[in-house]
Each structure stands twice: as C-alpha cells, then as structure tokens.
Design a protein that fits this description.
membrane, transmembrane, single chain, transmembrane helix, mainly alpha
C-alpha cells in the first residue's frame, strides 16, 4: 500500500520535471534569438569543476564581475585622538575625584569618632570627679 503511494509521488514528480524540461526545450526551439544564445547542453549538469561557468558564454566569462564590499573601518584623525585623550583624562579626573570624596568621607567619619570618643572620656572623667567629690563630702561628714 505504501509502495503504491510512493510510486505515485515519484511518477508525479517525474511528470512535472518532464513537463518543465519540455517547456524549456519548446521555448529554446521556438525562439530563434534564444536558440542562438542557448543550446540544449545548457540544461544538463556538467561534471566540470567550473560547473557554474559552463552556463556563461565566452564574452561573459572574460568580463570582470563587479563586487561590492560593505564594511566600516574607524578612521582616526587628530580630532578623534584628541577626543579619546580627553575622555581618558575625564575618566582619570573622575576616578581621582571619587577617591578624594571617599577619603574625605572617611576622614570626616574618623574626626566624628574622635570627637565622640573625647566626649565619652570627658563624661567618664566628670563622673569620676563627681564620685570622688561625693566621696570626699561623705568622708567630711563622717569626721
């Protein structure tokens, strides 16, 4: 059953190929101008390594084929180099400024910590002095 379907498909493909070939042959044979430019062998494949060139006439094969290549190459002029140098300098300045800002923030934090530490020491010292004075008062009262 499957073989019959496959055979029908192959037969139909062969008929289509045959019809297309016959139409091309009829076109070549009917038109005298086309007949001079093409021949029957143009429609058959070649075993040559230069198979695509087999379809070209001699005058076509000798003509150069124009090729356009599109690519972008950056061109560096004096302005481009100046801009690159300026951007590098800007980056360097930005890094220096950010390091300076970080250093300032750290210095300010250290200064505030020192002030806080000094205040804590002052409060401890005052508390100690107060305790001593209180102790002296109580000692005086006992005497």
């Amino acid at each position: 059953m499957h073989i019959v379907k496959i055979m029908k498909i192959v037969y139909n493909c062969f008929l289509v190929f045959l019809l297309v070939g016959m139409q091309k042959l009829y076109g070549v044979l009917s038109n005298r101008l086309e007949k001079e430019e093409t021949n029957f062998m143009d429609f058959l494949p070649s075993n040559s390594l230069l198979y695509p060139l087999d379809f070209q006439q001699n005058w076509q094969a000798s003509e150069p084929i124009p090729v356009t290549i599109h690519y972008d190459v950056p061109s560096y002029g004096h302005k481009d180099l100046l801009m690159a140098l300026e951007s590098y300098n800007d980056l360097e300045n930005y890094q220096k400024e950010s390091e300076e800002n970080k250093r300032r923030i750290i210095d300010e934090q250290n200064r505030l910590e020192d002030i806080l530490w000094n205040k804590i020491q002052l409060i401890k010292m005052k508390d100690k002095m107060f305790q001593q004075s209180k102790h002296l008062r109580t000692y005086k009262d006992k005497i």
